[in-house]
Amino acid sequence: MTAYILNRVLIGLATLLLASIVVFGVMEVLPGDPAQLMLGMSGSPEALANLRAQMGLDEPIVWRYLHWIGGLLTGDFGRSYTYSSPVADLIRERLAVSLPLALMSLLLSTFIALPVGIFAAARRGRLPDTLSMGTAQLGVAVPNFWFALLLIYAFAVWLKWLPAGGFPGWNGGIWNGIKSLILPSIALALPQAAILARVTRSALLDVLGEDYIRTARAKGLPRGRVLRRHALRNAMIPVLTILGLQFAFLLAGTIIIENVFYLPGLGRLIFQAITQRDLIVVEGVVMLLVASVIVVNIMVDLAYAVVDPRLREAA
Amino acid sequence: MSLLEIEKLTLSIGNFPILRGIDLQLEKGEVMGVVGESGSGKSMTALTLMQLLPHGAQTGGRITFDGKDILHATEAEMLALRGDDIGMVFQEPMTALNPVKTIGEQVAEGIRWHTKASRADAESRAAAMLDRVGLPQSKFPLTRYPHQLSGGQRQRVVIAIACALKPKLLVADEPTTALDVVLQKQILDLLRDLVDERDMGLLLISHDLAVVAEMADHITIMRHGEVIESGETSAVLTAKAHPYTAQLAEASAHVPSNRRSIPPSALPGISPSRGDIGPSSNVQRPLGAQSHQEHIKQTSPVRTAAVQSPFSLHEGEMPGRAEGGVTLPPLLTVQSVTRDYAGRRTGLFSREKPFRAVDDVSFTVHPGQSVALVGRSGCGKSTLARMILALDRPSSGSITFDGHRLETSKDRDLRDARRNMQVVFQDPYGSFNPRHRVERLVAEPLHLLQTKPSREERRALVSKALDDVGLKPADMNKYPHEFSGGQRQRLSIARAVITRPKLIVADEPVSALDVSIRAQVLDLFAELNERLGVAYLFITHDLTVARAITDEVMVMHDGRIVERGETHAILDHPQSDAAKALVAAAPDLDRALAARAARINAAC
Amino acid sequence: MSALPAETVPPSQSFLRLALGNRSFVIGAVITLIIAGMALLSYVWTPYSATELSVLNKMKGVSAEHWFGTDHFGRDILSMIMVGARASIAVAILAVGIGIVIGVPLGCYAAATGGWVDEVLMRVNDLVFAFPALLSAIMITAIFGPGATNAIIAIGIFNIPVFARVARAGALSIWPREFILAARASGKGKVLITIEHILPNIVSLLLVQGTIQFALGILAEAGLSYLGLGTQPPMPSWGRMLFDAQTRMMAAPHLAIFPGLAIVVTVLGLNLLGDGARDILDPRLRRVR
What's the domain range around A61? Predict the structure, then answer.
């Protein structure tokens, strides 16, 4: 078990290291001199040279990479050119919106999808199955930003229950903050929930065809109990895999959804930074997102081992 | 009143009739053997009895168990019966247990469910039951998971689950088919003991007449969803009143007819090979149409003609045996071959110690000889076969085939050797690419010819090969799924003989086939040996196969060859413990009937 | 379950028969054909010009002349959707093509070779998977310039590891089969075995994955265009139409509804097609039904 965990963590760290090299390398080869960008067209050659020296742009590339990594490890993400404030502060500020949004969506999606998937599998081929899977089929096809527009039209424009966009900040009361995240999280969660429900159902159906299900039935256990006690845990592996993958989708999805709802989150930050070539912000946010994907993957791997004893022994 | 009475049971699934009026009776403490080939409906009878049928199944007739009408029982009534009064053991122990639950949980689960016992109570009963089936707590604690157990041990767990609540009836559906003979005997003994000890009824379903003859008091023979014959076991099996019964009995102890007359011979240096091949027996060889080709063989065992033209090898020459009876160079020489597999990783930098699958094995096979490599599952025989086929490389030692060193050659240089050495696998379903037509499948080894045959030549070669194995040339346009299991095994053999190899390695070639089909395929092997002079290396755990068509047997145990000699000598007088265990465990119809008769006489 | 068809009908014909009997497949195929036909038709005919501005006609609702209404420049929405289908389909197909052409050989190679080659390829795969695909696509298109070509490349890159994984997993399940051993015993090398035996047996997996990635590609292209990073004006695209609709939605909800429906219907059709194809091609799943 420890070997398995250690192995996963080491692979994760190695992936993270490689990712940092890729991110740094890509930013390096991009056209455009950060110092030039900061100064604009007006800067004199001397001022440019000064700034470059000040920013450490004249150092050898390996040195700058190490410097950057060292900074990341100590929480120093550099300074944004456009916001002229530390990237770490920007990220902290924006995470206060994006993290609750991502968590709300993930919970929403999981709590809708698992019961629906299980329910459909238990009533395979009957009306509830057909209906819920038909809906899921449709849900998978809906682009989340279009769904967001429909939600805005229905709940903000027409019913006027919830705000159409913007974020009042957590200082204006927790409920106000949550209220402005409800529509965005639904828009993010439902298409994901549709996928997850389909995967849950088909994973369960696969497992229900296994020999050991027949063994359990031959013991005299009723169907429902067999489903809960024997099938569910075995069906969790593919479900966990998809959950892990969806986390990455959710992160990327926030970029578009935060744009639709004008939410000041990480997604909007990185989108604006990209269009304004504020590369130091882009680097920092991308590394953060990549790290969180990798952490989630490690957690999924650990969850596999909890579910399946065979994995605990294999390294 | 009988414990179980089945009357005129019919079953159809989606308008497809499966059972057409089955009658069967089973008394308390009695063993009823249900025998039939695949598709006879024997497993479906068991599932009907448990009411675990697939969706869309329609039943008719009557099943009475312990006074209860099963076919009209509610699901709640069935839940109370299943696992409590009726236990069931399945064929495939590797998949019958839930991989994510401990064996303790799985045995205790049924106990808790039916008796409402506390967890601790149920667990101590589970422990006692596991102990009874031969898995003592000291070595197999309740916290073990299925993957930590071997196939035989898992089947014991399944039996423990089925018998935990002392059921009145145990249904065992091919409980030993997936196990080797030694394990099979252990499991059957266990079932026998449990029946005697608890006065259970046992419904033993099997395709193997010998197994049933050893175990069952009464026997029911099924075919195509109908009962062919039933009655007291020895009476039915000695009288063989119904032709199908006779056919099954004949097939299960089958020896190909064209081998029976062959006396053992003494080739110098090795144990007997084909008896009709000796200095003076040249003329008697069943060469048939081939005799005009003999001059080719006078000079060299290497068939140069075959290399140049694909057609020449179809004119039926005898592969490499110098005529005249002097000492022959062996066709295959295996010298001190060892194969180690790296141990499983236990940590980041630590591994278990390597597993030695094959340990210092040496032997030779001479041209035209038919040798069996016999051993229990996991003894290393299949690993050895792969190395001989140059699909795997030995860790040390050497393999020489037909003058080629296999273990050091590159794939490219193995062509000559490969052309003269082909393979037949166990699974008639898995050994063909389902997306290709027979023509392409059977022609695959022609890839080894140096000149690519034209399309016409290829078709001619394929139709000849199909003809060799008793199929029609027109079959080459079909897909493999259009053939039955036995026919597919014929296709495998056609593929193997198309290059007229000198050696065919056959890995359990008949163990997936029904007995009657098995007999036909064994006949074919024997006939081809006779007609084409091809040598065989048969890998099997089944001694009847070895007895049927091989001259010599090698017994393998824990990676080593522990005994080698003439087939009949070894099977009749085994010397090593491993060979003795195999011989003792092998089910044998005649022996079983004799033992049964002796018991009855003793009782009188 | 009559034995007759399997006995006499070659797989190609029986595939057609099975396909016509599969509801998902038929519906999916019909939808996909309609959308593709619409895109093709738009090259020769659209009800109105999809690019010409006609201020007099702006923001018209649904009517007999303009079935789906007009936008803020007076362009006919139906015509724009027809032309927009081209970009969606082209981007998604080419991105799937990139994924297949590069990913499948890599996956097959990894499966055939094993050892460190496999390990390295799979680690690189993990690395690509660590980057949320849409995020990276946004970065690529934002930095190298918005437009359809860069969108294709950006989406295509992330299809590579997907197809590599599917191909590898499929190939690994085929390699230990006995017919592969038989082919090896016939002296066939890894390349030949991969072409003759592995690929034909994983093609159904790839086909199904292909339709899924195609559908995802349509969604991704719409997302990029919505952010202004995909297909550029004046060429209409579904995502861009939704962006334009957002600020005018209160006055004219039809602006948002029809392009969105176009995306939903297309993706739905492809997913149904993929589901149907999987049921038909995968005998293991067929047995479950």
Answer: 34-76
**What pLDDT sits at residue C139?**
82
Over the stretch B274-315, which tens digit does the pLDDT of each residue have? 333 333 333 333 333 333 333 333 333 333 333 333 333 333
How many structural domains comprise chain B? 2
Domain of residue C98, CATH code: 1.10.3720.10
In a domain, C93, yes or no: yes
Within 13 A of A188's CA, how many CA atoms are on the CB side?
Answer: 33
| pLDDT digits 0-9 by tens, C36-80 | 999 898 888 877 777 777 777 777 777 777 777 777 777 888 888
B239 and B297 in one domain? no
Q: Mind telling me how many Å the CA of B207 is from chain A's nearest CA?
A: 20
- What domain count does chain C have? 1
pLDDT of residue C10: 44
Three-state DSSP class for C233?
Answer: coil
Q: How many helices (H) and strands (E) does chain C have?
A: 13, 0
pLDDT at B543: 84
Do A94 and A233 belong to one domain? Answer: yes
**Nearest-by-Cβ selection for B430 from C1, C178, C184:** C178
pTM to 2 decimal places: 0.82
**Burial of B457 per CB tally in 10 Å (0-12, 13-18, 19+):** middle
Residue from the list A3, A218, A221 with its beta carbon closest to the beta carbon of B113: A221
Residues A221 and A266 in one domain: yes
Q: What percent of chain A has pLDDT over 90?
A: 30
Residue among B433, B439, B483, B508 with most chain C CBs within 10 A, to mutate = B433
- Decide if C122 is inside a domain: yes
Cα–Cα distance for residue pair A68/A62, rounded to 1 Å:
10
In this predicted structure, what is the pLDDT of residue A42? 67
The alpha carbon of residue C86 is apart from the nearest alpha carbon of chain B, in Å, by 36
Residue C114 within any structural domain of the chain? yes
Residue among B80, B106, B346 whose CB faces A220 most closely: B80
A175 & A308 share domain: yes
* Residue B337 DSSP SS3: strand
Question: Taking CB atoms and an 8 Å limit, are C186 and B389 in contact across chains?
Answer: no
CB B248 within 8 A of CB B33: no
ipTM above 0.95, yes or no: no
SS3 string, B191-230, reads HHHHHHHHCCEEEEEECCHHHHHHHCCEEEEEECCEEEEE
A91 and A72 in a common domain: no
- Answer whether residue A18 is part of any domain: no
In a domain, B110, yes or no: no
B298 and B175 both lie in a single domain:
no
Question: Does A234 lie in the same domain as A122?
Answer: yes
B482 and B583 share one domain: yes
pLDDT greater than 60 at residue B376: yes
Q: Which of C128, C223, C137 is nearest to A290 (CA)?
A: C128
pLDDT bin (cut points 50, 70, 90) of residue A34 is low
Domain residues for the domain of C232 are 20-39+74-283
Does A35 or C212 have the greater pLDDT score? C212
Binary contact (A234, B100; C-beta < 8 A): yes
